[in-house]
Design a protein that fits this description.
The structure is a homodimer. By secondary structure, chain A is α/β, with parallel strands linked by helices. The first copy, chain A, has 3 domains: about 170 residues, Molybdenum Cofactor Biosythetic Enzyme, Chain A, CATH 3.40.980.10; about 80 residues, 2-Layer Sandwich (Alpha-Beta Plaits); about 130 residues, Maf protein (Alpha-Beta Complex). Helices cover about 40% and strands about 25% of the residues of chain A. Chain A has 12 helices and 17 strands. Chain A has a 6-stranded mixed β-sheet with strand order 2-1-3-8-7-6, sandwiched between helices. In chain A, strands 14-13-15-16-17 form a 5-stranded mixed β-sheet, sandwiched between helices. In chain A, strands 10-11-9-12 form a 4-stranded antiparallel β-sheet. In chain A, helix 3 packs across helix 4 and helix 9 runs parallel beside helix 12. The two termini of chain A are about 50 Å apart. Chains A and B meet through helix 2, strand 2, helix 10, strand 14 and helix 12 of A and helix 2, strand 2, helix 10, strand 14 and helix 12 of B. Strand 14 of chain A pairs antiparallel with strand 14 of chain B, so a sheet runs across the interface.
């Protein structure tokens, strides 16, 4: 089964918008075992869109068209598809009523061209999910198929997962179910992970399913993705559970989260479960930790605040690990929190390798510290220090 | 003149990397007046890359291939281009020596396959700019041309601007020069800007050059792009200068910067020129201001620090504008800075519309304040408040 992606919109070609839809669809198709060999961007031009759709149907079994379903005159995806299908457009009364209702319920006046979005090529089926005003389309062409979705990412995602993917899998005759799980790691290199998992890789090569792949993701750590292909959902879930348990056994505390969990949300959950609050002294991290935490904990019920002061933890004769510990205690006291965190870099005269950072966590008066090496450029040193600092807290609280 | 973009790499189709190169190239081509009607992504597959290049040469005058020039076995762009040209690859001794030298100078061992990067199709010219180990290629095919660049963005940018764009313009017979300038604005809606500039738009429609276009860019404000097409560089620069002066006359202080200037860098420049330092009380902005400033002012010589404390500026009987002013003075005093900034949101009981924010700047003891409406969702309210706060400081210092 081969499926192409056609992203439609002159603003994509002009670089006003970066086409992230194709990348998302490419990932989803790959996870579902559907080949995607071509992804094309084309402008709002009838002839060129038509040529791209015809070529896609020529060399693939399906094409997903994203964009050009809106109400304005340059939204012509519907018209082009009708032309490729050799049929007329017909206004769908139920969709027209829905669009009218959407405007009314928001107290807005609807201009008539909005009803163009209710036009459906004869023989096509509108996609039931309709978070916006434009419905998606499933347009069969013999044994092949054209799908159309709006270019708005969340609307496209919903239509793809709810209708297009199941339809593609049915057409591919895939009786099997493909499920994946991502284990998020921090603190080990990709080659380090590969070494620990080497034997398991060899075993899986023989088994065929599940498969494991790494994905380095900068300050989001390295992701270990498990993909299971099974006869049904329950079997796939069992395979994923078993493989996760096995990998956890091998990698241990390097795994900080699963799927969409971030280091912030994991640490926040841990703190909340233990009824703890925390504050941070941002000496070298420049406010990045606070910005991330205040976004994850909008009410600031668990993250109580902090300060950004490059002077914290400098000099005074004490060793850098002592200065980091003192800063953690000080910020904890100032904000009346149970936990204080701090990260400091030693001064040049102290003779540490560039990129050396001292992390400290004060939990109810008990000091925990760690010396780590970060990338020496300041931007990455800051971002990596934020994650390393949260990771120190995570490991300490989980111990 | 039509030029396509072909992004090569299986990781692009799998969504592991989002293809931002095509968007960048699309913008550059549009600015240069060169049409780009198609942008295609294809995997590391000989036959499919070849088909894409042949199709591009069929329907366009030029194609820029990005990616697949590295040293590994799946980097086959060179080989495919040689096949399309009907020629063999020949090792370029000078490039091979350069690659060897790059490894030696970094003290790294070079594996032999790195020298594949020195292979050039007979009849092609390597691109002189070579920031990495892979050179780009200019490959003429009759009156058409294939360009190849690495997929690494900064290497691609350098080769495009240094060699490919001038070559494209020469081929297009463009004697004229196209130059653009972006005026960055904050504080006025797109329709507000359009209203102020309406008469000028009408005049420019008749003149033909320069042209003006808006680009809404979220927390980067709304960009006003002026594009001038003239006989030579000097004339284009004069047109841009004149148009900028005219637009500045109409828009006034709404314009905060030009081209790549950000609100942070503009404010930092102003403060540095006046020998001022500053600190910020981040009550509602959660550390975002500090994170941005500490990145722009890595040494923290001008931005002295701040605190993140949701309790600052709450209650106490005083009005919200007074509480904002008090927080600005307090943080200024604590960090020994000349300027203190603060943004606070009133409490629900105070009866302001959701999204109301009070901004305050204390400059050497003189208070400046402003009441603004921000988007009510917390994420955007924070980000917009950061820019609005810096903008208040900018306007006050420029007055």
């Amino acid at each position: 089964m081969r499926c192409e992606v056609l992203a439609i919109g002159t603003e994509l070609l002009l670089g006003i918008i970066v086409d992230s839809n194709s990348a998302w669809l490419g990932e989803q198709l790959a996870l579902a075992g559907i080949d995607c060999y071509f992804q094309v961007k084309v402008g709002d031009n009838f002839g060129r869109i038509e040529a791209c759709i015809r070529q896609a149907l020529d060399r693939s079994d399906a094409v997903i068209c994203c964009g050009g379903l809106g109400p304005t005159q340059d939204d012509i995806t519907r018209d082009v598809i009708a032309s490729v299908m050799g049929v007329k457009l017909q206004r769908d009364a139920a969709i027209a009523a829905k669009i009218r209702h959407m405007f009314e319920s928001r107290g807005r006046v609807m201009s008539q061209n909005n009803l163009r979005q209710a036009d459906v090529p004869i023989g096509a089926t509108p996609i039931a999910q309709m978070p916006g005003t434009a419905p998606g389309l499933v347009c069969p062409m013999g044994d092949k198929v054209i799908y159309a979705t709006p270019g708005v990412p969340n609307e496209m995602h919903e239509m793809f997962l709810g209708t297009i993917l199941p339809d593609l899998r049915r057409r591919a005759g895939q009786a099997s179910v493909i499920k994946s799980r991502v284990l998020r790691t921090w603190g080990m290199s990709e080659s380090g992970l590969a070494e620990v998992l080497e034997k398991r890789f060899d075993e899986l090569d023989k088994l065929g399913t599940p498969t494991i792949a790494f994905q380095a993701s900068g300050i989001d750590g390295i992701k270990v993705r498990i993909v299971a292909k099974c006869d049904d959902e329950a079997a796939a879930a069992r395979v994923l559970d078993a493989e996760e348990a096995l990998i956890r056994g091998l990698l241990g505390e390097v795994i900080f989260g699963v799927d969409e969990q971030s280091m912030e949300t994991v640490v926040l959950d841990l703190l909340r479960r233990k009824g703890l609050t925390f504050a941070a002294a941002e000496t070298i991290t420049g406010g990045i930790l606070s910005a991330r935490m205040s976004l994850a904990d909008a009410a600031m019920a668990t993250y109580r605040g902090g300060w950004i002061d490059p002077a914290t933890g400098s000099g005074g004769g004490a060793k850098p690990e002592q200065r980091a510990a003192a800063a953690a205690s000080q910020v904890r006291a100032q904000f009346g929190a149970r936990v204080g965190l701090a990260a400091i870099a030693p001064e040049a005269a102290e003779g540490y390798r560039p990129g050396t950072v001292f992390l400290a966590a004060d939990i109810d008066g008990a000091a925990h510290g760690e010396q780590v090496m970060q990338p020496p450029d300041r931007r990455r040193m800051r971002e990596f220090s934020v994650i390393s600092l949260l990771n120190l807290l995570r490991r300490t609280l989980s111990a």
